Amino acid sequence: MVCEKDQLVQKICELYDQISSLESLKPSEDVNMLFTQLVLTCMPPSLIDVTKLCMKIQETRSKLIRLCGEAEGHLESHFSTILASYTNPLHHLNIFPYYSNYLKLGQLEFDILTKHCSEHVPNNVAFVGSGPLPLTSIVLASSHLTTTRFHNYDIDPSANAKAVRLVSSGPDLSRRMFFHTTDIMDVTDALRDYDLVFLAALVGMDKDAKVRVVDHLAKYMAPGALLMVRSAHGARAFLYPVVDPCDLRGFDVLSIFHPTDEVINSVVVARKVPTTKHNADNPLAPTKVPNKFLDIEMFDPLLNHVNLMEEIDIEEKLS
């Protein structure tokens, strides 16, 4: 008898085989259909732990994440080009098929930010890996952080050029949004200027690369500044890399949120630890992580917040 987890992994592997055989991952009927199937397959809340899968499946997962990243880049570039053809591109963002997801994710991340940064509104925010369609920055700047300056970093000059064309049409956003074409690993002192840094899900496509970026941010971010990292949970970890709390050396992990609706990414929020005589010699030493029974939350807009303890209890009953 095949268990539910085995069926799920088998389905994902079948979709990987079909996706990897495509000649191009640019938007097309076949590409759209297969990735829609993949997302719908991975979306339902799942108790699967991808770290415990066999090596062959682990390798397939790594390849699939890279394919998803490539396809996502093509999709954003495609729609950024379409939007740029409008006189006022910012008035037509809803043509992007996942725009509503960004609205929900933006609301979630703003709620998290409010919880941990209630004393003042961030003056300067950095978004690392903003891409050709910087919807997170646009949504937050337009609807939530309406006086904040956003500095968007991307290594791809064509992505930034497309993003600039979109934002330049807005008299307010064009004054508060800036774009930097550079590898974030080459950015040092400037990182101290930001109250909040967002790390996109696809910056650092594997664990080692992600940890290198996080360590770099830990070295140069201002003490007390917040870091918001996109992660994934359950079967959604076949779509995006997972960031474990232990990966965030030099930060105190404050909360981890796992959406259970169509918002795919989990959100991890952490605070850069102050430099003290105890950690000055080893700024990347392990720091405290949240109590797993109190701070890790499942998020559903219909149910508000459901504590992960319920998930743990269910898993214990099933095991």
From TrEMBL:
| Keyword entries, A-Z | S-adenosyl-L-methionine, Transferase
Molecular-function GO terms, alphabetical: nicotianamine synthase activity
**Catalysis performed (reactions):** 3 S-adenosyl-L-methionine = nicotianamine + 3 S-methyl-5'-thioadenosine + 3 H(+)
Q: Which InterPro entries match?
A: Nicotian_synth (IPR004298), SAM-dependent_MTases_sf (IPR029063)
Q: Biological process GO annotation list?
A: nicotianamine biosynthetic process
What is the enzyme's class at the highest EC level? transferase
* E.C. numbers: 2.5.1.43
The family note in this entry says: Belongs to the nicotianamine synthase (NAS)-like family.
Function according to Swiss-Prot or TrEMBL: Synthesizes nicotianamine, a polyamine which serves as a sensor for the physiological iron status within the plant, and/or might be involved in the transport of iron.
Protein name according to UniProt: Nicotianamine synthase
Taxonomy-wise, where does this protein's organism fall, top ranks first? Eukaryota, Viridiplantae, Streptophyta, Embryophyta, Tracheophyta
